[in-house]
Design goal:
binds cobalt (II) ion; 30% strand; binds ligand Y12; five-stranded antiparallel β-sheet; globular; Peptide Deformylase
Amino acid sequence: MILPIVTYPDKRLKLISAPVTDFTADLHTFLDDMYETMIETNGIGLAAIQVDRAIDVLIINLPNDDEEGTQTRDNLLEIINPTMTHSEGTTVYQEGCLSVPKFYEDVERFETIGITYQDRHGVECSLEADELLSIAIQHEIDHLQGKLFIEKLSYARRKKFEKEYKRMQKEQKKR
Ligand code: Y12
Ligand code: CO
């Protein structure tokens, strides 16, 4: 089932998500719905709060290294109750978010990170991430804390964003 995506400035995106305690069939159905929603909207990462569930769940499905950059479910990462254990270096990447449509901005993140998390069955896992995966995980973990990438912009860039975003929303309402 495709779920509606909550978009900025909806206040629900500010909620702090709660840990998952029950690794039941309900959770599995929800994870499958999140995946369907993310693929349908051309996303590569999605946090549960973006589909109005304030729980510590995120999914990431980076494009493959082939020419078309196809996304295949076999490298889908389902990350539940993540904790960042370490980080190193900094990097800048132009980020986008399904909850802030049509807007991309450079954001500084850690270059490499380590996380521990649980999979859909509650099994404890760990992961070392760099490059795009590291950025995507940090972006999605921020969602679990009620934070959006636009909050990491400088004051001037944020002001410009707010102006452009409001104008875009007005134009969309006219249509
Ligand atoms: C690097 C940086 C950020 C992330 C977080 C995950 N972000 C996304 O998955 C963004 C998806 C996205 C897709 C869009 O395309 C469509 O909606 C068709 C898009 O374009 C528009 O809104 C028009 C914007 C963002 C992971 C890795
Ligand atoms: Co996002």
